[in-house]
């Protein structure tokens, strides 16, 4: 058992509040700081299935990457998703804490974890000024197709698989990535002298503009991986960090997929 307050203090040292983006809403969302915690469930998102799974495990706290309330919520009516989730958490004594933008680019954070899982070394920042995004190199350069196949094995399985734009035979050595929705980093990625840029949630127009530009300048290939899968890997790193610190608390990574898509039809 540990007081929620001592867990929160440690969360804030791993994922500093000073790194939270202006628009973000990380931190403690539901809970009493003086309550006792013995079981914590780690999840990318807080959904009703995750809450219910946490209750079944007898958990007292959900540690999520995505904040439960990111945009304005003006009602907790239980016929709304947010309202029913909040009510479920409170009725079942489940606290909720989120570490979002403050966990993205810190050492052993979400993007670094993804980079290491994909075999990248000599890690640096994609944007040296803001210290955001990750750049790394493969010790053994490989073809784009083989790299994509290896990535598909490392990432948790999702309906969409992963999507790639580029010559499958192209040699990949230097890779940039932003775990989560990273299309605002496409311009930086283009200028970073990469062989490949990886992110999630890429839309038609930004992707097409990027691909067209790369034809003129021999810019990087592009890979779109599922947002949930990209960020889920970090939960195991956080679990390890927290288990090392709090021996009397059990930290359980939820293996429930919170990817919104559950099947695809191939053409
Ligand atoms: Zn995300
Ligand atoms: Zn993220």
The largest β sheet comes out as: 6 strands, mixed
CATH topology (fold) name of the largest domain: Udp-n-acetylmuramoylalanyl-d-glutamate--2,6- Diaminopimelate Ligase, Chain: A, domain 1
Number of strands: 13
Instruction: Specify the number of helices.
Output: 9
- End-to-end Cα distance: 52 Å
In angstroms, what is the radius of gyration?
19 Å
Order of helices and strands: EHEEEHEHEHHEEHEEHEHEHE
Kindly report the name of the CATH homologous superfamily of the largest domain.
NIF3 (NGG1p interacting factor 3)-like
Strand order in the largest sheet:
7-8-10-11-12-9
What small molecules are bound in this structure?
A: zinc ion
What is the CATH top level name of the largest domain?
Alpha Beta
**How helical, in percent, are the residues?**
25-40%
Q: Supply the helix-strand structural class.
A: alpha/beta
Shape: globular
pLDDT averaged residue by residue: 97
- Measured by DSSP, the beta-strand proportion falls in 15-25%
Q: What is the CATH architecture term of the largest domain? A: 3-Layer(aba) Sandwich
Provide a descriptive summary of the structure in words.
This protein is of the alpha/beta class and 267 residues long. It contains nine helices and 13 strands. It has helices at residues 4-14, 48-56, 81-91, 101-104, 110-117, 144-154, 186-191, 204-217, 227-245, and strands at 2-3, 27-30, 36-37, 39-43, 61-64, 95-98, 120-124, 134-143, 162-165, 171-181, 196-200, 221-225, 250-253. The strands form three sheets. Strands 7-8-10-11-12-9 form a six-stranded mixed sheet, sandwiched between helices. Strand 5 (61-64), helix 3 and strand 6 form a beta-alpha-beta unit. The longest helix has 19 residues, at 227-245. The protein is globular, with a radius of gyration of 19 Å. The structure holds zinc ion (2 copies). Residues 66, 180, 227, 231 line the site of one zinc ion. The site of one zinc ion has 6 residues, from strand 10.
């Amino acid at each position: 058992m540990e007081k929620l307050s001592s867990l929160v203090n440690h969360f804030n040292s791993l994922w500093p509040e000073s790194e939270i983006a202006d628009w973000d809403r990380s931190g403690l969302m539901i809970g009493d700081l003086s309550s006792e915690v013995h079981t914590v469930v780690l999840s990318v998102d807080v959904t009703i299935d995750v809450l219910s799974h946490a209750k079944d495990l007898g958990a007292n706290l959900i540690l999520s990457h995505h904040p439960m309330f990111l945009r304005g919520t003006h009602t907790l009516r239980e016929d709304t998703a947010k309202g029913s989730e909040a009510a479920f958490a409170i009725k079942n004594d489940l606290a909720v804490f989120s570490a979002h933008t403050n966990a993205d680019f810190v050492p052993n954070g979400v993007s670094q974890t993804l980079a290491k899982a994909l075999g990248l070394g000599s890690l640096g920042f994609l944007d040296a000024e803001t210290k955001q995004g990750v750049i790394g190199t493969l010790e053994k350069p490989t073809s784009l197709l083989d790299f994509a196949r290896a990535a598909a094995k490392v990432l948790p399985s999702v309906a969409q698989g992963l999507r790639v734009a580029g010559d499958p035979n192209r040699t990949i050595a230097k890779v940039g990535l932003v775990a989560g929705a990273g299309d605002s980093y496409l311009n930086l990625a283009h200028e970073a002298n990469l062989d490949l840029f990886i992110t999630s949630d890429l839309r038609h127009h930004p992707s097409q503009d990027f691909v067209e530009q790369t034809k003129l300048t021999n810019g990087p290939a592009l890979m779109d991986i599922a947002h949930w899968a990209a960020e889920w890997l970090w939960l195991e790193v956080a679990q390890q960090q927290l288990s090392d610190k709090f021996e009397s608390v059990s930290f359980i990574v939820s293996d429930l997929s919170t990817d919104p898509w559950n099947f695809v039809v191939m053409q």
